[in-house]
Design goal:
Elements lengths: L1 H14 L3 E7 L10 E7 L11 E6 L2 H7 L3 E10 L13 E5 L1 H7 L6 H12 L5 H11 L8 H19 L4
Parallel strand pairs: 3-4, 4-5
Antiparallel strand pairs: 1-2
Helix pairs in contact: 1-5, 3-4, 4-6, 5-6
Length: about 170
C-alpha cells in the first residue's frame, strides 16, 4: 500500500533526474500498526531525510490520519481515503481532499490499487512528478511476477487523477 506508493514516487523522481529520499517505517506496523514513509522529491540537494512538518500527507486509514494530520504545514495538502476514515480531518488551514479510493479500486476489480488511485489524485493536486514517470517506475517497483497488474495500476492512477479534476472543475 503506502510503502509501495512512496517507493513508486521515489523511482519516478529518479527517472526525472530529481533528488530523492524515501524513508519507510515498517516496524510495529508488521504486527497491526500503520506503515508510513517519508518521500522527498526536489530539484535541489536534500539536506536531511528527516522532517517533522510535511508539505503533503496521504492517509489511507484512520490511525494514519490521526497521527499525521497535525504534522501538515499550514497551506499544505492532505488527501485521505474517505472509504476507510470515519472521522474526517478537522483542519481549516490546509487543503483537504477526500478520495473514495477503496470504493474506486473495487470498481476496477482490484482493491490493492487504491494506493495508485490516491497517488493519481495527489499528482493532480501536487505536480511533483509526471504520471508517465509513475507508470515507468511501476515496472521497476512491481516484481516481474506482478507485471500483469501494470494495466490496472495505470487505470487506477488515471482514475485518481480524474476524480480530482471532477471535484475541482467548477460547473458553469
Amino acid at each position: 500500500g503506502v510503502l509501495s506508493m512512496g517507493m513508486t514516487m521515489a523511482y519516478a523522481g529518479m527517472i526525472e533526474g530529481k533528488e530523492v529520499s524515501w524513508m519507510p517505517s515498517n516496524g510495529p506496523e508488521m504486527r497491526g500498526g500503520t506503515a508510513n514513509c517519508i518521500v522527498i522529491i526536489s530539484e535541489k540537494k536534500i539536506s536531511s531525510p528527516i522532517v517533522t512538518a510535511y508539505d503533503a500527507v496521504i492517509a489511507l486509514n484512520q490511525p494514519s490520519l490521526d497521527k499525521f494530520e497535525r504534522a501538515v504545514k499550514p497551506n499544505g495538502t492532505l488527501l485521505y481515503d474517505s472509504s476507510n476514515i470515519i472521522i474526517p480531518p478537522s483542519r481549516t488551514d490546509i487543503t483537504v481532499l477526500p478520495v473514495a479510493a477503496e470504493l474506486e479500486a473495487q470498481q476496477l476489480g482490484n482493491v490493492k490499487v487504491r494506493n495508485m488511485i490516491m497517488l493519481g489524485a495527489f499528482l493532480s493536486m501536487v505536480q511533483v512528478v509526471h504520471s508517465s514517470s509513475i507508470v515507468k517506475a511501476l515496472t521497476q517497483v512491481l516484481p516481474e511476477r506482478y507485471h500483469h497488474l501494470l494495466t490496472v495500476n495505470r487505470q487506477a492512477l488515471e482514475r485518481g487523477e480524474a476524480l480530482v479534476i471532477d471535484v475541482l472543475t467548477p460547473i458553469v
